[in-house]
Task: structure prediction
Amino acid sequence: MTDTTLDDVFKEALDRYQAGEPAEDLIPVFKDICDRARKSSPAWTCLAWLYLLADKYNSALKAAQKAVKLNPQDPQARVNLAVAMLETGQKGVRKHVEIAQQIAMAIPELRDELQESFDDGLKRKPNWASLERVQAWVFDG
Result:
């Protein structure tokens, strides 16, 4: 019997997402990962994204806040937080968008990853106004 590490579980869950599995099905998996790895910013970032896709905006806000607290330099965590804030009517979105924009401009690989994430979100959830707004702010200023 093999020993499955939390990293393996995380990678498998990401693979399932990338294969098109619905966000609602993956939320419990990522919630469990976050419960077991409380300081894993990537896990919290993924959970926030899944909550956003599932229209669970208050839960997304909490998960995104945790991800940003754990890694303030993660532009995806900042984007998730900005979208969750827009969806829940919070103030202070600009600060998170500006930080994501600065990081994306400084590091081309992260810019490309962000663009892929925006594309994925709009493919899974067409006409997602908040995501479209944040995308325009990050890339067009």
Notes: The first helix runs from residue 6 to 18. The mean pLDDT is 95.
